[in-house]
Amino acid sequence: MHPIKQELLKNGFGYSDQLQDEMLTNVSKSKKIASEYQLSGLIVGCIIDYWSIAENQKKLASTERELSAYKQIYKAVESNVSMGLYDKYNLYQFNALIAGSEAKLASFELRYNKSVRKMLRNLNMSDVSGNKLSWVGLDGAPHKYDKASLLKVALEKRADLAKVKIGLDSAQQQLLILTNQDPSQCSTSVASNRYGL
To answer: What is the pTM (predicted TM-score) of this model?
Structure first.
């Protein structure tokens, strides 16, 4: 009797190679998702920056109108004080209001310029110093949306969860490759004698 033992070829037809190709595809998908996530973050940041610029521009224009109105009232009060119709107290009061309005105007100019510079920096654009940029005004707050449906869509499209799922898929494929390469699991043996099986 002559025993023959043969290890079976478990990687017949390139099964492990197919799994490795799928793992490489998963890596490229993961990189694409990461790039899309970074790009979407940049876009959302720009939208927020734009909204901030529009709001600061609105506040700046309002403060400029307030200062102009205080100055006009101050001139009227000043002429009334010179005629003796008002006390100097009223003049001092409007003087204080003008000083407060000028301080508020300087603060809003600083905020506006800072928000413009931030957006230009995020967009990698050169600074447009000295020129006041004109922005399309945004009226009111953003529209109301159904938070539950938007949250559901956001959770479905989360980049970190998608990357984790792809990583899990790749790990399972790697496990299949490693179990497929274990030669001790699959073998066959045949025994024959001189006269046949």
So the answer is: 0.56
